[in-house]
Amino acid sequence: MPTRANTNDDEAIISEDTSEVTRLFVERLQAWKHAVGYLEDYITATEKTQHAHGKEYERILKTVNEPLKEGHHFDQSLGGIAGMFENIRSNTQGISNQHYETAKSLKGTILSIFERLHSEIKHKTKELSKGAGKGSKAVDKARNATQKHIELLGQHTATFDSHGGKIAATDDPYVLQRGVLYRLNKQIQEENNNRQDLISVQNSFAQFEAHVIQTIQHGLGQFMQVVTAQAEQTKAMYADMVGTAQRIPLDFEWNGFVRRNSGILIDPSAPARSVTNVHFPNQDHRSTQPIIAGSLERKGKIMRSYDTNYYVVTPSKFLHEFKTDDSFAKDPVPELSLYLPDCIVGAVNGQKFNVKGKDVSKGKVGNTFSMSHELQFKAHTPQAAQKWWEVIRQAAGQITAEQPETSAPTSPVTSKDSPTQPLSPQTTQPTTEQTTGTIPSATTDAKPAPLATDVPPAQATAGSTPASAVPASGVPSEPGKY
Questions:
Q1: Which residues pair with 311 in a beta bridge?
Q2: Buried b (16+ CB within 10 A) or exposed e, 191-228
Q3: What pLDDT, in 10s, does the model give residues 65-89?
């Protein structure tokens, strides 16, 4: 079987020439076409020679006297196509007498066989160019798209390091890194499709070449029948030519071709590429790793029911919303992006907490006209909500003591998701940790939130909760998914 030097699966962009195999097969088809063309010329010249007897056979010899074009594609040892043509030359030299009676049969029967074979080879060449040739172009296009996105990721990871994490939502290295995965997945699909096409072409070539040799054998066999009426000497010479062609094994030339080009042809047993085995620059950069990620429920603005989405807080201090965590099905562009230093975070209440801010996922123009909205989130457990709130609080520009509404939600949420008894404004007070004011941030000038001392006395004394009673987190400290 053909073998090729193993490629490095750790590289996203392979430097191999995708059209190398296609060009090799096109060149081989050209060799076969010229070989059949030699036989066509030979039969045509033989038909003309029937009118001119012995002298004209010198002309016949000239049609096959030159070496085969693309002769390196044929085995030069005895028993192959090159040996067959050498045998034709030697026997043609000994033929000196021909008859006019065979001219019509040669032209009408034998020549048409090789003309049809010539047309089949041309058609095979067109199929190869339109099929595998287009696949190679698609692979090159996909690789260029991946390379450009990898370079874009490199630019913005460098910007992240040099600007202290201040970066636009659309340029967030986390988003760009997922974009690289999306384009890399498409590239590898194109590479694997093109590879499978080339394997199919490669396998079909053995059958096609067997058909070519069978057709040559058939044509020369018909040729022998036409010339049997001639002199015994001529018959014997032509029989020797045909016998040489008949003795060529159907896989003789193919096996020699595979042996000589084992470093170029594709090994069908080699495994296909996988995204999990590919590495690219800045794939594990700290700006691409989420601080916390998982599913949360967000209350809709119109239906007022909770929908579950996938949320991520990145080192760039963005809270991104995605439909799912799948980076392959479609381009993972955030549905919603909040720059937390510009946001106001309320207090956590059981499984719920609110974040007020402006969606910055639409670019500079969209951000200018967008309005601030108060988004209501609900985690799956109070511990998960506390962990999300702690991460968002550390990045938020302002913290308030305002708690989410405690009325029953319109979505089908069981009663255990809500507090046992609703808390009234007179009996609900934020903890000390929730009302400590704003967290300093170099990227925002938001005004500090009111301190606990700013709460009206009636509210400050009634039902207040000591800070020590609030658990810091119900979940281990390392980031995880919920």
A1: 294, 321
A2: beebbebbbebbeebbebbeebbebbbbbbebbbebbe
A3: 778 888 888 887 778 888 888 888 8
Set out the domains of the chain in order of their start, with CATH numbers.
20-275 (1.20.1270), 290-407+424-469 (2.30.29.30)
In Å, what is the CA distance from 223 to each residue of 103, 268, 355? Answer: 11, 40, 90
Sign of torsion over alpha carbons 141, 143, 144, 148: positive
- Output the DSSP codes for 54-117: GGGHHHHHHHTTSPPTTGGGS--STTSHHHHHHHHHHHHHH-----GGGHHHIIIIIHHHHHHH
Note whether 183 and 273 are within 8 A (CB). Answer: no
pLDDT tens-place string over residues 397-452:
888 878 877 654 444 443 334 333 333 333 333 333 333 333 333 333 333 333 33
**Distance in angstroms (rounded) separating the CA atoms of residues 210 and 254:** 9
Q: Residue 96: what pLDDT?
A: 62
Contact 297, 306 (CB under 8 A): yes
- Please classify residue 389 by burial: count the beta carbons closer than 10 Å to its beta carbon, then call 0-12 exposed, 13-18 middle and 19+ buried: buried
How does pLDDT run across 339-364, given as a tens digit for each residue? 999 999 999 989 999 999 988 888 66
No. of helices (H) and no. of strands (E), the chain? 12, 8
What whole-number distance in Å separates Cα of residue 395 and Cα of residue 397?
Answer: 7
Residue 97 or 136, more confident: 136
How far apart (Å, rounded) are the C-alpha atoms in residues 46 and 60? Answer: 6
pTM over 0.90: no
Q: What is the DSSP letter of 248?
A: S
Distances (CA, A) of 239 to 41, 106, 398: 19, 16, 99
Residue 41: closest CA among 26, 61, 27:
61
Q: What distance lies between CA 97 and its chain's CA centroid?
A: 65
- pLDDT tens digit string along 222-260? 988 887 777 778 878 888 999 999 999 999 989 888 888
For residue 476, what are its two tokens?
């281990």
- At residue 93, the pLDDT reads 80
